[in-house]
Amino acid sequence: MNMIRNRNYWFSSGYLITFYAAWSLWWSFYAIWLKSKIGLSGEQLGIVYAANSAAAMFFMIFYGVIQDKLQIGKAVVTFQSIMMMLIGPFLIYVYEPLLQNNFIVGVCIGAPVLSAGFISGSALIDSFVERISRLFGFEFGPARFWGSFGYAMATFLAGILFGIDPHINFWMASVVSVIFFTINLVFKPKHYPEQSKTDNVVVEQKSTIPTMSEILSLFKLTKFWLFVFFVIGTYSFYTIYDQQLFPNFYTSFFETPENGYKVYGYLNSFQVFLEAGCMIIAPYFIYKLGAKKSLLVAALVMICRISLSATLDNIYLISLVKLFHAIEIPLFILAMFKYIVANFDARLSATLYLVGFNISSNIGVIALSTPVGKLFDNYNYSTTFYILAGVVLVISVIAIFTLSEGKKTEKA
What we know:
With 412 residues, the chain is an all-alpha fold.
């Protein structure tokens, strides 16, 4: 089926554009909000991110295992969409007062709510749409383009609204989440017992649904744990750099916080627009280079961005370096799916993506967020960035010898 005429492609794109737009409206300025509006220290910021990641681990296991059993069933996505719609009232009336008056209670209550709707939800939606793309005859990359596009548009708006009042961002996130919920109610993917002559798609049969023993067998594979080691050593450190440290680092170059918020929003929006374009181009690059080499190239881009942030002190050059993210994310995310399919049972893609990739990276964030926060409190951005870049470099060199080539990547 031509992708443009494929209703499953457009519904899947609707999922992605609304989810990532809703997420961006509050998440893109989350670290800045916690530090500048709530007044958290670097160590407290690390505790918040570690707690969020710990809660996300539970939901990723739940989401991954159940979604692999459901295949393209929507029960888990429906639960997630309900949690998404609650984000605005929760952040304003529950989370913010608790962080200000009873920090630990706020962290403990906020972590599962934020994780159920968004932090774990991003991996769920990506894996859900990736499976639909394989079953209904379209490439995941062009669908994921709409997720990046939605994030970019929302980030542009979020930068303006945040300077006025962050609560506007939170309410807008809930409004967009209602649209996501509506799409989920309307979308009804169909099962076909055999290849359809009109729709040209093949859907997995009931007998191909993985058993629990098959899911658990992943944890006995050496190459699974080598894969996990690579994820923790690269993506975890990069996540801490990009989410916990860089937003406040970037806005510190401006005379007033308000100007910093606006410019960061504009830059982040432009970066995600570029990222959206790379989502279309990246599958062809991955096909030529292979999933393993593409992951290593993405890690190299991470190293360059982190180390250059430590070296440069010119806001224009740092802004240029920020745009490296537009190359790294499409390469890493799309190559990750290709690597999973090439090296493991494709029926377990949701478990592998949510547990093998996302939970692994979250374990790294849990273990490292607070120490990195303390490191920043005691030293400075440059020292912290150099250490992070050095760790990612070492792990990437090790991965040259430990990641598997797998079977040939399918053409996009």
